[in-house]
């Protein structure tokens, strides 16, 4: 009898535990929830618990089944909810180190206003610090349809050093900046041009020719934030991209982003639980001629899927190698200049690194702009695969604007994918001037998808393009540049479901997470965004105006605005006190 009573009590307790486990931490109801399982499939409510999705369904049944006294409720008021956006190629970790000291021209509609911002920021900037605009803009976004002149920059800011980058093809340094840098007629960066006037003095214009060395090296001389400021800056940058509904990024590393010193600010946020974007990062060798040595060292120091986030799975995880593996394979995308042929030693340099990565089962990604370069890289991959099989190892090309049909077939045969970006949104006019109007979609996304090749979507932000994902979705839906040029044939644009798929489950493949993110279904990560406007009914030109009014990562609200602003978690003020972020924020919405 005693045994039976104990058994009954245990069973009763298990029922209570199971019941408690089925109650949600958070429920969004009265919503239009795009599950992204099938086109046109929407639910009214979604329940979350412990960072995962419990269920979706109609509002009445979800509230009845999963609501408890402790459940937080969000009435979406009929707004659209989508899976959190995932940028498959962003330089988020590096931008976090710099965001607080950069003036962003992203979204600025006139050159007049851009120059006003420059002058205003210069007045706030203390002596010894630079005023910097680093990427995210071009002249075609401005009503004036032109870049600033160096004379205009000098007139606006005569007494503080100024550095402005234009894509990776050009940079502006005002006369005060030239003075601070000490540049003269003898200053030389191989592969780049420092323009001189008739008297042999630098005009302040820097041009990338074979390489962007002058731009990179000059940027490195314009100052850094302190360790404390870097952490604060990173937190503000992640908050900034949360404001657009981004919940994940696949970080492509980058020039001057050294492992592991330059990963410490984001690591500090991850270890304290303050990192609000799931970040999968890759490692990029920095020193020409020492790339193999770096990777040989790193494969003994760390490993793919190593997660350092305190509170969530895959929150800050090392994923593999890239986007550049070797200096001789840097397929420079400067459409102001003709294509640069990669040096003959590229294959010899690349092969031992690919062998090392495949042997150690390290996923890799490789920056490649032109089909001519991709062909040579694939020759190396196929050679390695013969005796060191890829055998399902995740790998992909980044960019691949002019990849050919034959090369796509070879990518598929090796089990690879492609991470595409909307670089042509900013560079389509330049490409057209250099090579003519493309007759088909470029990069050929529809063809990739038809062949069953995994495709992820991203921005390559922020030194080329803006990090605003809705601008990238506008590009996918219209085939137009930021200036309105019809770059793709209209018949090759993507439908809304497919475009959003690329930005959710498509990008999740690039970090091997396609089974846990990208759809709003039971068991998936509770990462999602309530949108300001309905993506599925908005005309394409209105899509680029969309923002998030609530962003949820791991089942927690990490950003909120508009009717939900009171629920936005607090964040420290940007530092230093003169930070452009304090006055302007980032993207000019």
Automatic annotation (TrEMBL):
Residues 1-20 form the signal peptide. One of its GO terms (molecular function) is hydrolase activity, acting on carbon-nitrogen (but not peptide) bonds. Residues 73-559 form the Amidohydrolase domain. InterPro entries: Amidohydro_3, Metal-dep_hydrolase_composite, Metal_Hydrolase, YtcJ-like. SUPFAM superfamilies: Composite domain of metallo-dependent hydrolases, Metallo-dependent hydrolases. It holds the Pfam family Amidohydro_3. Keywords: Hydrolase, Signal. CDD domains: YtcJ_like (cd01300). PANTHER family: IMIDAZOLONEPROPIONASE, PERIPLASMIC PROTEIN. This is Amidohydrolase. It comes from Mucilaginibacter pedocola.
